C-alpha cells in the first residue's frame, strides 16, 4: 500500500513577482519588487531599472500556457502561484479593479483546469503595491486591512468556481524580521523598533482572518490556509541555556501559526513581547477577525537553524531567510545552506502535534548553479544533486505520514527556473525546467526539461512509491 494518500497534491510553486515579468503591461502597477533590483539586501531605486531581472522574470505572463503544459507533463496535481495585487488594483486604492489583470488570471486558471491541475493561490507573496508602501508605510498602517479585504473579496468572487485552495500571506512571519519584503514597510529597518515590526505583522494577521471570513461567505467550499517560513530550531548543545534559547526562538515562529490555527495569540506572547517592550494596539474588532481560523497550515522549508545562547563561539551558516550556526552533522549546498531532510519530518510533526490541521509543504528546494550539456542532440541538465535533495526530503514527508501526520500536498519551490527573491539572481536555480536566461538577463527564455523533470514525473506517477522502491 502506498504511503502517500491517493489524492495527495503533488506539484510545484512560483510567485508572480519572480516569474511573471510584464511589470508594466495591461495596466499593472508597481510593487515593492520593482524597485529592489539586487534583492532584499540591496538598494531601493526610484523606479524600475534595467538591471532588475524581476521586471522580465521568466516571462510567465506570456508563456504560461507552455509552462502549465510542462507541469502537466510532469503530472502535477496542484500549481501554487500568486496573484499580483497590483495587476488587480494598480495602486491598491482604486475603487474599480483592473479588468485586464483579472482576465489574465482567468486564462491561467482555465489553462490549469484544462490540464486537471488544481491552482493553489497566494493572495500576497511579497508583492505589496509600491504606492501603498510609500503613502502608508505599508502594513504599518491599519488602512491596509480594508484595502486588502477589498482585493481579496474581488478575486474570491471572480474565481469562486475556478480556485478551491487559497493562502492569504506568503511567509507572514517574515514581516517581523524583514519588514520591507514581508510587509511593504518603506521605513528602513534600522529606524524601526520591534514594536513597529510586530504591529505591522499584527495588521496582516487581522487581514488574514478577515479574508478567511470573506472567503467562507463567498464560497463555503473554499479551503483557506496560512503560510509561514519554517526552520526548526536546534540547540547547538544540550546545555540548558541553549535548549531554552532554542525553545524561545521556536515560540517566536510558532506564534504566527498559533494565531491562524487557534484565533488568538498564544500563552507565551506576553513574555516574548515583554522582552522587547512590545505593546500591540489590538482592538475588539481585531480580536473578532482573528477568530476566523484556517483550514490547513502550509509552510516553506529549506533548512533547519541551529542556535546557541552565546553564538560567538561558533561558525555561522547561511540559509533561506533564517540563518543560524553551522551544524557539524549536516552537509551544505554551494550557497552554504544546511541540507537537513529530517528537519522536514520534525517540523511536520511539531505543527501537527499542536494543531491537528492538515499540513501542506508549499515550498521546498535547493538553489544551485546548473550547467547545460547536450545529449542526443538536446540540451539538458544532469542535476543529480537536486534529485538527491528532493528524494531525501520527500522520503521524510512519507515518514511523517507514517507517523500519523495528515500531509495533503507538496509543492517544490521554483519548479520552473525563476529569479531569486532574496538576491534577485537568476543563476540560483531551483527548477525541474531550465530557462535560458543568464545572470545579466541575456538569453532566449527557451524552456527545456532537466534530468530532475523526468525523475519527479516518475515519483508522481508512482504516487511516491518510487522514493522507497529504488535502490539507494
UniProtKB/TrEMBL annotation:
Keyword terms: Glycosidase, Hydrolase
Enzyme class, spelled out: hydrolase
Gene3D superfamilies: Glycosidases (3.20.20.80)
EC number(s) stated in the UniProt entry for this protein: 3.2.1.-
Residues the record marks as active site: 363
Residue spans crossing the bilayer: none
Hydrolase among keywords: yes
InterPro entries listed in its UniProt record: GH, GH_1_N_CS, Glyco_hydro_1, Glyco_hydro_1_AS
Sample GO molecular function, one term: hydrolase activity, acting on glycosyl bonds
Similarity field: Belongs to the glycosyl hydrolase 1 family.
Protein name: Glycoside hydrolase family 1 protein
Origin species: Alkalicoccobacillus gibsonii
Amino acid at each position: 500500500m502506498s504511503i502517500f494518500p491517493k489524492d495527495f497534491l503533488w506539484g510545484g510553486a512560483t510567485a508572480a513577482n519572480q516569474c511573471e515579468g510584464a511589470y508594466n503591461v495591461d495596466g499593472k502597477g508597481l510593487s515593492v519588487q520593482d524597485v529592489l533590483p539586487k534583492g532584499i539586501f540591496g538598494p531601493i531605486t526610484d523606479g524600475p531599472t534595467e538591471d532588475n531581472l524581476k521586471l522580465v522574470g521568466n516571462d510567465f505572463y506570456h508563456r504560461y500556457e507552455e509552462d502549465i503544459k510542462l507541469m502537466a507533463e510532469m503530472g502535477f496535481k496542484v500549481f501554487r502561484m500568486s496573484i499580483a495585487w497590483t495587476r488587480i488594483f494598480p495602486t491598491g486604492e482604486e475603487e474599480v479593479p483592473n479588468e485586464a489583470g483579472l482576465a489574465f488570471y482567468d486564462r491561467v486558471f482555465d489553462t490549469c483546469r484544462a490540464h486537471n491541475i488544481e491552482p493553489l493561490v497566494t493572495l500576497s507573496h511579497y508583492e505589496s503595491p509600491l504606492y501603498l508602501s510609500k503613502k502608508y508605510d505599508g502594513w504599518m498602517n491599519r488602512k491596509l486591512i480594508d484595502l486588502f479585504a477589498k482585493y481579496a473579496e474581488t478575486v474570491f468572487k471572480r474565481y469562486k468556481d475556478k480556485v478551491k485552495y487559497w493562502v492569504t500571506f506568503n511567509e507572514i512571519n517574515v514581516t517581523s524580521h524583514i519588514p520591507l519584503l514581508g510587509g511593504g514597510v518603506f521605513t528602513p529597518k534600522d529606524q524601526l523598533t520591534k514594536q513597529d515590526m510586530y504591529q505591522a505583522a499584527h495588521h496582516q494577521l487581522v487581514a488574514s482572518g478577515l479574508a478567511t471570513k470573506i472567503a467562507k461567505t463567498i464560497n463555503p467550499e473554499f479551503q483557506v490556509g496560512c503560510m509561514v517560513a519554517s526552520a526548526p530550531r536546534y540547540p547547538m548543545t544540550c546545555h540548558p541555556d541553549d535548549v531554552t534559547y532554542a525553545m524561545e526562538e521556536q515560540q517566536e515562529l510558532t506564534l504566527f501559526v498559533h494565531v491562524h490555527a487557534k484565533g488568538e495569540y498564544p500563552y507565551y506572547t506576553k513574555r516574548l513581547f515583554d522582552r522587547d517592550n512590545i505593546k500591540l494596539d489590538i482592538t475588539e474588532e481585531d480580536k473578532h477577525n482573528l477568530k476566523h481560523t484556517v483550514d490547513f497550515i502550509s509552510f516553506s522549508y529549506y533548512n533547519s537553524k541551529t542556535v546557541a545562547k552565546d553564538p560567538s563561539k561558533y561558525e555561522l551558516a547561511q540559509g533561506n531567510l533564517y540563518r543560524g550556526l553551522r551544524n557539524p552533522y549536516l552537509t551544505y549546498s554551494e550557497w552554504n545552506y544546511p541540507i537537513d531532510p529530517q528537519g522536514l519530518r520534525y517540523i511536520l510533526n511539531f505543527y501537527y502535534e499542536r494543531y491537528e490541521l492538515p499540513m501542506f509543504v508549499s515550498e521546498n528546494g535547493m538553489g544551485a548553479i546548473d550547467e547545460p550539456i547536450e545529449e542526443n542532440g538536446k540540451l539538458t541538465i544532469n542535476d543529480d544533486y537536486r534529485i538527491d535533495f528532493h528524494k531525501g526530503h520527500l522520503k521524510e514527508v512519507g515518514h511523517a505520514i507514517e507517523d500519523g501526520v495528515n500531509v495533503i500536498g507538496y509543492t517544490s519551490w521554483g519548479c520552473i527556473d525563476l529569479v531569486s527573491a532574496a538576491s534577485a539572481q537568476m543563476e540560483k536555480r531551483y527548477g525541474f525546467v531550465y530557462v535560458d536566461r543568464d545572470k545579466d538577463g541575456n538569453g532566449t527564455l527557451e524552456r527545456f526539461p532537466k534530468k530532475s523533470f523526468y525523475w519527479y514525473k516518475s515519483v508522481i506517477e508512482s504516487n511516491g512509491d518510487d522514493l522507497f522502491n529504488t535502490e539507494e
